[in-house]
Every structure is written in structure tokens, then in C-alpha cells.
Write a structure and sequence with these properties.
The protein is an alpha/beta fold and about 425 residues long. The chain has two domains: about 5-75 and about 210-420, Aminopeptidase (3-Layer(aba) Sandwich), CATH 3.40.630.10; about 85-205, Glucose Oxidase, domain 1 (3-Layer(bba) Sandwich). It contains nine helices and 21 strands. The chain has helices at about 25-30, 45-60, 130-135, 150-155, 255-270, 295-300, 335-350, 365-370, 405-415, and strands spanning about 5, 65, 70-80, 85-90, 90-95, 100, 110-120, 135-145, 160-165, 185-190, 200-205, 210-225, 230-240, 245, 250, 280-285, 310-315, 325-330, 355, 375-380, 420. Strands 2, 3, 12, 13, 16, 17, 18, 19 and 20 form a nine-stranded mixed beta sheet that branches. α1 packs across α5 and α7 crosses α9. The N and C termini lie close together (about 5 Å).
Length: about 425
């Protein structure tokens, strides 16, 4: 099967243009990033609460379910921290998210460890790795600026806990892509300056809930094309975020990625209007499990509810809440005709400051489709006005600096351009 890229002037046939404001986006972002959603992670199954909300939003927007239901389930396994976590240094209680975090690969524990230091600068009195290997560290917590995984491997995993100390000026950026496999030792990160010279004892408390082969869902709705209903453009965004780092310590994920979901639904609302009905079928998919390793999009791509060769484009939106610095098209180098068209539309209309192209990368939900040979691009906005990523400060309201113009650019792109497969 040969892939041919052509430009079709009215692939989606825009018949009306509706001025876009940010009121809907702000409301949706506020809801997804609220405390009631608990960070939309697997802990307390907050992801399912967000999924139910988005299904109702899609229905209200006029989208039909893709298949019999809006929900497309898949299985996952993950460790979660829905309950108590505590960390003390010499009986000094630290604050989660700002002073420290535990990695989700950590087991449940309630233990006191002897503190051992091992830093790259061994000119001080700290022991070198060769000295640590001689010790029984099963009741010890090693605090280090070495690479934690490599250190754990070097110690053969025979250690009670390992904490990496962040560089000066660096915030604690949490991730949950390590949640599937639980280690025998506790691991995490300390903020720079938290560790004091006199500290000798580490107290760790972690209550975990491991979800084994649980059911998660992607949420998908569609608008049937007026002329080419058997051809599909997928517009996607992940709705999950990091969830809970212990009870009450949630990560809102307003820009990452409530903003992308808002943009996706806003495009759906526009094209669902009778005057704006597209010529090809549009499928809008909100993925879960992106933060855990693209789980939702991998499952969806592996079990596409439509024929793979009928999908002419995947447009993935992830973190579009800024825009003062323009936008970046990931996979633009792999899809030069698509990137060129976006850049041309922007140049003709002066929507955003710049449109940059990046090479192939598996940093968001476009990746599983690209691997299947489907044209797939990922768009994110750029701008220093919102530096918050995987931290609790990524909360509503967010700037939405160029939200309207990014919407118009994407609308024009969907109308003007489409890859056709022979």
C-alpha cells in the first residue's frame, strides 16, 4: 500500500466560522483540574470520574459514540499512593511535593532507616560506592546525587531506600511511568537543601494500593463525514495526569493536559454544528494512561475500531495553554507536507509567533499511531508565561495566551489539508 500526500482544498468543508472565546475552555479546565478530580490518576480511580465527565461533555457537544459506547476499555496494572505517606529526617516532618516525593515503584513501608550519604564529590567524608557495597544496607537509606537506578543496580537492590537530591534551583518533577513494577526498596527525591548535615535517621511511611489488571477507559466520540464517512481524522488528547502523592497531595494538570482536552472538545463543538459538518469523519479521543507510558493510546492503536488504512491523520494535542512563543509540531520532520501546510496557514494569517518542526519522538499519544504507519503529529504551545510541569502549581487558571489563535489555526488546517492513502 503506497502512501500519497495531497492537499484537498475542502476536505472538511468549512461552511461557517464561529468566533471562539475561552469561556468553555476555562470551565472545562477548571473542572478537570479541580480537587474533586484528584489529579485524574489511577489512585482512587479518579481517572474514571474524569472519563464519565468527558463522556457527558461529548454527548452534550453533539458527538455520537464511536461504536456502542463512548468508553473503550483496556487493562493496566499500577501502584498508587491514595492514602498516608510521611517522610521524616531526624524527626523533622517534610512536606510532600515540595520537600520530597516517593517514586511509585516504592513498596508499602513503615520503617526507620539509618542514613548513609554517597555523593559524587567524595572529597568530604562520605563513603564511596566501593565502601557502601561492603555494608549491609537493608536497614539503610542512601542519600545521593548519583543516578538512582544505576546506584540501585550497583548495590544489587540490597538497600532499604535510595533518595536522590535535586540540583540547586530545580523543582521536584514527579512522574508515574514507573508504577507498574514495585521494587523491594523505597526510592524518591529530596529537594535541594532539605538534607541537613546532622541528619542521621530517615523515617518512611507509605500506604499503597496496587491495581492488578484493572480496567481503564479511553473516551471517544465522532462526527460522521458528509462525503467521505469511511475516511477518518483522529483528534486526540490525554485526559489523565499524575494523580495523588498520598492523600490530599494532588497534581492538578491544568496545562498538562486539561488544556489539550479543552482544545479537542472545542474543535468537536465547532464541527458538530450542522453548518460546519466535515466531509470526512472526525473522531475525538481522550486517552487515559498517557503519564504511565502511553497506555491508553497504545491500547487504542492496537485495537483500532476502524481500519488502520482509513485513518488519514492523527492530530494529538498536549499542553496548549500558552503560545507566546508559538507552537511546535512534533513529527513534523516525518510529515513534511503536514508541517508545511500548518506553517503556510500561520504565515498567511499571522495566528502565532512561529510554527516549529521537530523530529520523531514518542513523547505523547501520537507515537503508537506513527509506529503503525499512520500520519501522526503532536502539537504543543510554547511560552515562558507558564513554566509549571509535573508540579502542583500546574493548576487553573492557566494563561491560554494564544488559545483562540491556535484554535483558528487548527480549524483552518483541518479544513484545508488531508493525507490520502491509496
Amino acid at each position: 500500500m503506497k502512501l500519497r500526500i495531497v492537499v484537498i482544498a475542502s476536505l472538511l468543508c468549512l461552511k461557517a466560522s464561529v468566533a471562539q472565546d475561552t469561556l468553555f475552555a476555562k470551565k472545562l479546565i477548571d473542572t478537570l483540574a479541580s480537587a474533586s478530580m484528584e489529579g485524574r490518576g489511577f489512585a482512587n480511580r479518579a481517572d474514571l470520574k474524569a472519563a464519565n465527565y468527558l463522556a457527558s461533555v461529548m454527548e452534550t457537544a453533539g458527538l455520537a459514540p464511536l461504536g456502542e459506547r463512548y468508553f473503550h476499555p483496556y487493562r493496566f496494572s499500577a501502584n498508587t499512593f491514595p492514602a498516608t505517606i510521611l517522610l521524616k529526617l531526624n524527626n523533622r516532618l517534610l512536606q510532600p511535593q515540595t520537600d520530597y516525593f516517593y517514586s511509585l515503584s516504592s513498596p508499602a513501608t513503615n520503617q526507620t532507616f539509618r542514613l548513609e550519604r554517597m555523593f559524587v564529590d567524595t572529597s568530604k567524608r562520605w563513603p564511596a560506592l566501593s565502601e557502601l557495597r561492603k555494608k549491609d544496607l537493608r536497614s539503610s537509606a542512601v542519600v545521593t546525587d548519583a543516578v538512582p537506578n544505576r546506584l540501585a543496580d550497583s548495590l544489587g537492590g540490597r538497600v532499604g531506600a535510595i533518595f536522590f537530591v535535586a540540583d540547586s534551583g530545580k523543582r521536584l518533577v514527579w512522574r508515574n511511568s514507573d508504577a507498574e513494577h514495585v521494587n523491594t526498596f523505597v526510592s524518591g527525591m529530596l529537594a535541594h537543601g532539605v538534607l541537613q548535615p546532622r541528619d542521621s535517621v530517615v523515617e518512611c511511611t507509605i500506604q499503597t494500593e496496587y491495581i492488578n489488571q484493572g480496567e481503564a477507559v479511553n473516551v471517544a466520540g465522532m462526527i460522521r463525514g458528509s462525503k467521505f464517512p469511511g475516511r477518518f481524522v483522529l483528534i486526540t488528547a490525554h485526559y489523565d495526569h499524575l494523580g495523588l502523592l498520598g492523600k490530599g497531595n494532588w497534581y492538578p494538570g491544568a496545562n498538562d493536559n486539561a488544556s489539550g482536552v479543552a482544545m479537542m472538545i472545542d474543535l468537536a463543538r465547532h464541527f458538530a454544528l450542522e453548518a460546519n459538518q466535515p466531509e470526512v469523519s472526525l473522531v475525538f479521543v481522550a486517552f487515559s494512561g498517557e503519564e504511565s507510558g502511553l497506555l491508553g493510546s497504545e491500547a487504542f492503536a492496537a485495537n483500532l475500531p476502524v481500519a488502520a488504512d482509513s485513518v488519514v491523520l492523527v492530530l494529538n494535542l498536549d499542553m496548549v495553554g500558552t503560545g507566546s512563543g508559538g507552537i511546535t509540531v512534533v513529527n513534523g520532520d516525518a510529515n513534511p507536507s503536514l508541517y508545511k501546510k500548518i506553517a503556510e496557514i500561520n504565515a498567511n494569517n499571522e495566528y502565532v509567533a512561529t510554527v516549529k518542526s521537530r523530529g520523531t519522538s514518542c513523547n505523547s499519544d501520537h507515537c503508537p499511531f506513527h509506529r503503525k504507519g499512520i500520519p501522526a503529529i503532536f502539537i504543543y504551545s510554547m511560552g515562558k508565561e507558564w513554566p509549571y510541569y509535573h508540579v502542583p502549581d500546574d493548576k487553573a487558571p492557566i494563561p491560554l495566551t494564544e488559545y483562540i489563535d491556535i484554535f483558528r489555526l487548527l480549524q483552518d488546517f483541518l479544513v484545508a489539508t488531508g493525507p490520502i492513502r491509496n
